[in-house]
Amino acid sequence: MKNYQDAVLQKRLEEMTPEEIAQLQAKAAAQEQDFDIIFGDQNLKN
After folding, report:
1. What HEC string does 5-46 produce?
2. CB of 8 closer than 8 Å to CB of 16
3. Is the Cα torsion angle 33, 18, 21, 46 positive or negative in sign?
4. What is the helix (H) or strand (E) element at residue 3, kind and residue range?
5. Predicted TM-score of the model (pTM)
6. Three-state DSSP class for 1?
7. Cβ pair 1, 9 in contact under 8 A
8. With 90 as the cut, is the pLDDT of residue 38 above it?
9. Region 15-30: what's the mean pLDDT?
């Protein structure tokens, strides 16, 4: 099942435009930052 999911995600990624990939990366970074704020994990990365 994991291989199928990985293949589907890989195909979707390959079909994305550079702009869509940049938006996805920005959204992931923002969510990571939110997680760090909520759980106080900011100091673990430094």
Report:
1. HHHHHHHHHHHCCHHHHHHHHHHHHHHHHHHHHHHCCHHHHC
2. no
3. negative
4. helix 2-15
5. 0.63
6. coil
7. no
8. no
9. 96
Burial class (CB in 10 A: 0-12, 13-18, 19+), 29: exposed
Residue 18 backbone phi and psi in degrees, to 5? -55, -35
CA distance 24 to 36: 18
Span 2-8, mean pLDDT?
Answer: 95
Q: Tell me, what amino acid is at 19? A: E
What's the pLDDT at 43?
54
